[in-house]
Amino acid sequence: MARNKIALVGAGMIGGTLAHLAAMKEMGDVVLFDIAEGMPAGKALDLSQAAPVEGFDSRLKGTTDYADIAGADVVIVTAGIPRKPGMSRDDLLGINLKVMKAVGEGIKANCPDAFVICITNPLDAMVWALREFSGLPHNKVVGMAGVLDSARFRHFLADEFNVSVEDVTAFVLGGHGDTMVPVLEYSTVAGIPVPDLIKMGWSTQEKMDAIVQRTRSGGGEIVALLGNGSAYYAPATSAIQMAESYLKDKKRVLPCAAYLEGQYGVDGLYVGVPIVIGAGGVERIVEIELDEAAKAGFQVSVDAVEELLAACKALDSSLA
Ligand code: APR
């Protein structure tokens, strides 16, 4: 049986971390594609030289030629520019939209059967544009946002409750970051919902509100600290979890930016919702009953995504 092939389009900070994780986990052979000459080949060579020490047999290749991603089973897209301090994700729109066009066409021509995970920001708009440009089925193109947002949330909750991160689950909906909607009723420690933990005196509503706010601006906090670029370890780990669920048909239930066709009252947009990822790609969209507050928060996300799509259509008439 041939090994899986994982193509990473964009070999920058997240791309390099993705390659390292995919190789260490022996998820398959890895191709690092970038427009920068030399750099993807350099990273692939460096990582290949870690293989004898770590004992992994993934083959790694760096390239600037789309032909090398031919036949990829999974494509993870980070191509584009990241945020600099003071920039919002939306500021990236114009530049990264052009990048999505080139990448979408490259995927369409070389690996139209792949499962595609988009990480490039502004996420909810870029994943939609990438799907449009690639022409792949909607169930094979998803955006990585919710796994990262909920990981940030879980980290802060575990810290506050002083328990293992493994026992904390978090439920988030909506757009990436600033407009994400954490649903505390479905966020738990070992199955105990957060509102019950507040009643039990483990924390206070005020502290929870502060954690929600810190999670929403979690990406910005890291951008400000790094001073030059945005987060890459946790984003890469999150996308790898999604890729593994597809390649191993694990059917994980993960919050991702998925294409909605009527669910949650939304039609024709990518928004963050819980989905089941298995060998069929997006196998199910999990639609839960929302209370009024969550509904209102979700609508803010949807409105923000709609505005971004309108901006994309104004910039590129082929999307209109
Ligand atoms: N095709 C392929 N690669 C491209 C293209 C293109 N058209 N345009 C830019 N790139 C490459 C750059 O050369 C760079 O190596 O994309 C890479 C991006 O890497 P970084 O600048 O290190 O950015 P990174 O931190 O990896 O983030 C990438 O993910 O989270 C989002 O906001 C983030 O949009 C950004 C993306």
TrEMBL record:
Its EC number is 1.1.1.37. It catalyses: (S)-malate + NAD(+) = oxaloacetate + NADH + H(+). Keywords: NAD, Oxidoreductase, Tricarboxylic acid cycle. The active site is at residue 176. NAD(+) binds at residues 10-15, 34, 96, 119-121. InterPro entries: L-lactate/malate_DH, Lactate/malate_DH_C, Lactate/malate_DH_N, Lactate_DH/Glyco_Ohase_4_C, Malate_DH_type3, NAD(P)-bd_dom_sf. Residues 148-304 form the Lactate/malate dehydrogenase C-terminal domain. Residues 5-143 form the Lactate/malate dehydrogenase N-terminal domain. One of its GO terms (biological process) is tricarboxylic acid cycle. One of its GO terms (molecular function) is L-malate dehydrogenase (NAD+) activity. Pfam families: Ldh_1_C, Ldh_1_N. Substrate binds at residues 83, 89, 121, 152. Belongs to the LDH/MDH superfamily. MDH type 3 family. Catalyzes the reversible oxidation of malate to oxaloacetate. This is Malate dehydrogenase. It comes from Alteraurantiacibacter aestuarii. The gene is mdh.
